[in-house]
Design goal:
Strand content: 5-15%
CATH superfamily of one domain: Winged helix-like DNA-binding domain superfamily/Winged helix DNA-binding domain
Order of helices and strands: HHHHEEHH
Distance between the termini: 57 Å
Number of strands: 2
Shape: globular
CATH topology of one domain: Arc Repressor Mutant, subunit A
Strand order of the largest sheet: 1-2
Helix content: 55-70%
CATH architecture of one domain: Orthogonal Bundle
């Protein structure tokens, strides 16, 4: 016999309420915002054949040509194993190619193919639309302040 679930004596607040709102801890609010952003990105990329981590890898390869897998792992905050799987899938899909390093034969550099550049362009358009919604209603100064604050948060632990 299955028991009927009972209501929690402490209902979970909705986003924006209680500690999930302005009274919440900064770390939690950053995580909550990151989760909401990730869900938007997942939905935006439906039908493109790319995931947010793949988009991140493509973006870093485009911005910093000749990266190795280890470089990508550091830049994307993904494990080397995850990057390896993503790279293998992108190579198999024809979005990137591997080439040997001129001096260190064991190191492979990654470059976008024309098809990878096209996929990145389509993905960027959707990602930029999401970013515009995040910035809607903010002044240029407010945006600059938020960007500088986020960089300071990241730099605090980079030393």
């Amino acid at each position: 016999m299955m028991r009927k679930p009972t209501a929690s004596p402490h209902p979970v607040p909705k986003v924006g309420e209680g500690k999930r709102g302005a009274a919440g801890r900064l770390g939690y609010l950053l995580r909550q915002a990151s989760h909401a952003w990730r869900q938007r990105m997942d939905r935006a990329f439906v039908g493109l054949g790319v995931t947010p981590p793949q988009f991140l890898v493509l973006t870093m390869i485009a911005n910093y040509p000749g990266l190795s897998g280890a470089d990508l792992a550091r830049l994307t905050f993904l494990t080397p194993q995850t990057v390896s799987v993503i790279v293998a899938n992108l190579v198999r899909g024809g979005a990137i190619v591997r080439r040997r390093h001129n001096i260190h034969g064991r190191i492979q550099h990654l470059d976008l193919t024309p098809s990878g550049r096209a996929l990145l362009a389509r993905s960027r358009a959707r990602a930029h639309a999401i970013e515009r919604t995040l910035l809607a209603g903010l002044s240029v100064g407010e945006e600059r302040t938020i960007r500088a604050w986020l960089v300071r948060v990241a730099l605090a632990d980079a030393a």
